[in-house]
Amino acid sequence: MAIHITADRSEASFWRFSVAPMMDWTDRHCRVIHRLMSRHALLYTEMVTAQAVIRGDRDRLIGFDAVEHPVALQLGGNDPKLLAEAAKIGADFGYDEINLNCGCPSDRVQGGAFGACLMREPALVGDCVAAMKAAVSIPVTVKCRIGVDDQDPEAALDALTGAVRAAGVDALIVHARKAWLQGLSPKENREIPPLDYERAYRLKAANPDLPIAINGGIKAPAEWPAHLEKLDGVMIGREAYQNPEILLQVDPLLFGRGAPVADAFAMLEALEPYIAAHLARGGRVHAFTRHLVGLFPGRPGARMFRRHLAERCVGADATLDDLRAAIGHVSRHEAAAAA
């Protein structure tokens, strides 16, 4: 593979900007695409349960390529011993951070009494963090909500923060909405409960020495600096996935450095050796193209680009030439406009 991106893993910038862990989206191929557009963004895996890490196919579940650094492993679970064992496995795999999910409201995590359910059990979360901290030397962080159901966000978030601080947590990522465990789907829980950024700001003011990042509803790059005036980091999720070209603005806007590539076309060209290596191992082009449908929003040829991906790049026989043909629907318009 011939991708050469020197990522930034310095402590001063570690949590300044990150792409959220998203189930079915932020797999290892998605993360390589995102890395090609930012050296500095901290990338997260999809949530993996501690039991799956311990008992499952580790290479398939948590394997990653060195180009992805800095990259964090997000774990789900509520058993301190199992989480500590899974964290140690993740650290041995080379991850830069271990994150505990205390924010997902899906039926699956509710059935296992973890994710957002843990907002109700701050002492247990503290025990989990303490066990993971004892098992690894890399940062251990928590991603949480401001509360669940009828909890008072002031009391709930303060209780969780106090417990994880006492356990030595390295940073807290706050999704600035409540989660409703009954009556709303996971998608609705990302949209319907009102955002309360001020709650996160108050938390930081009360905990000035604890790195705190904010997540939830953050879209345009113009919004990022305002949050960073009051907090230590910004995490974006769906916007980074559905409009990945905004990641080209991360390094120039937040780190004073040029983006690794000039534009989406250059990113796709840099991605080709990685895809070719994947195909040589028996993989499929669709493993990548499913993460590319958000490219070129609103530009001439974008609709044909997406149609070509859907019609020609899904099958097992799809090739790099099929991807190049899809890109051509947009690049021809760009070349004509520049002539």
What does the main sheet amount to? 8 strands, parallel, barrel
Q: How many beta strands in the DSSP annotation?
A: 11
Helices and strands, in order, run as EHEEHHEHEHHEEHEEHHEHEHHHHHH
Highest-level CATH class of the largest domain: Alpha Beta
Instruction: Assign a percent range to the helix content.
Output: 40-55%
In CATH, what is the homologous superfamily of the largest domain?
Aldolase class I
Classify the fold: give the CATH topology of the largest domain.
TIM Barrel
Give the number of domains.
2
How do the strands and helices of this protein lay out in sequence?
Layout: E1 17-19, H1 28-35, E2 42-44, E3 48-49, H2 50-55, H3 58-62, E4 71-76, H4 80-93, E5 97-102, H5 107-111, H6 122-135, E6 140-144, E7 147-148, H7 153-166, E8 171-175, E9 178-179, H8 186-189, H9 197-206, E10 212-215, H10 224-228, E11 233-236, H11 238-242, H12 250-255, H13 264-280, H14 286-289, H15 302-312, H16 320-338
Task: Walk me through the structure.
With 339 residues, the protein is of the alpha/beta class. It contains 16 helices and eleven strands. β1 (17-19), α1 (28-35) and β2 (42-44) form a beta-alpha-beta unit. It starts with 16 loop residues before the first strand and ends with a helix.
Short description:
By secondary structure, the protein is of the alpha/beta class. The chain is 43% helix and 12% strand.
